[in-house]
Amino acid sequence: MRHLIDPMDLSVEEIDHLIELAGKIIDHPEKYREVCRYKKLATLFFEPSTRTRLSFEAAMMELGGNVLGFSSADSSSAAKGESVADTARAVACYADIIAMRHPKEGAPLVASQYVDIPIINAGDGGHNHPTQTLTDLLTIKQEKGRLDHLTIGFCGDLKFGRTVHSLIKALSRYEGINYILISPEELQIPEYLKKEVFEKKGITYQEVERMEEVMPELDIIYMTRVQRERFFNEADYIRLKDSYILDMDKLKNAKEDLAILHPLPRVNEISVKVDDDPRACYFKQVNYGKYIRMALIMTMLGVKADED
Ligand code: NCD
User: Fold this and answer.
1) Catalytic annotation, pick one of 17, 31, 51, 255
2) Could you tell me the residue range of the domain that residue 49 belongs to?
3) Mean pLDDT score, 135-149
4) Which of 151, 155, 173, 286 is buried deepest, with most CB atoms within 10 A?
5) What share of the chain is helix, strand, coil (3-state, %, to 5)?
6) Ligand 1 within 6 A of CB of 264
7) In Å, how far are 1, 87, 110, 202, 298 from 113, measured between CA atoms?
8) Residue among 52, 87, 139, 163 flagged as catalytic
9) Over the stretch 255-269, which tens digit does the pLDDT of each residue have?
């Protein structure tokens, strides 16, 4: 029995396996329609979500399983003062696997220490979001055909964006990734990532403030929303929120086969005019998210389709 709290909990081989299984599910979804029959997934979301929670639920339904859970802390006993550990222990009596999102960094890790069913971190504060990372890796693999030797620009809120933190960690194990970090000075990636990932592994990276100057080099641009809920004051948010807006003009010098990714939700950072450009991958990314979560649920529950 394993939990998924940090993207580094998975080896490169395990990630390859999940990507391969997701590919098989995409090709033959009918073979997987019953594999999780009588199994239950609980989604415990103490923080807002659309895609992550609903894709987990849709994934479990498409595997023939059932779902239960709550979508805000207000509608759970957290509102009465219950600890995350107690909530998780109770839910473990009803479900076979838990996906948990929480505003506090480390909450899913704490929960995992109290239960004997797998816990998946569906986003903890500004820390990690390993299943978005799996979604991003599947998207990159499908769109670019590889997970190595790529120039990737991460743009926007690199300080609070947990999807960025998790993806940077996961990619650090692949060869030849060229990282270009595009952000205002105040929103640069945290020091701990620079030290524990880049410096420790001897990986070089570039930090820039303007996206225009690096656009022609990029194979992938990973856009992010400025994370309003993690700011200490509204004035800073307002000052920084429109730091980057990707529009058709900025794409003029970009590669023909650039892949534009965004974990969504988008606020202003990608003009809707970009949506029809063939380089926009963010809605395809949403679709990949369901398939990789199907592969993950199957793997964590130890179930297989007959042929696999
Ligand atoms: C992201 C998150 O929750 O961290 N969304 C998601 O899961 N797709 C990104 C965000 O909220 O900006």
Assistant:
1) 51
2) 7-128+289-301
3) 98
4) 155
5) 45, 15, 40
6) yes
7) 12, 12, 5, 33, 22
8) 52
9) 999 999 999 999 999
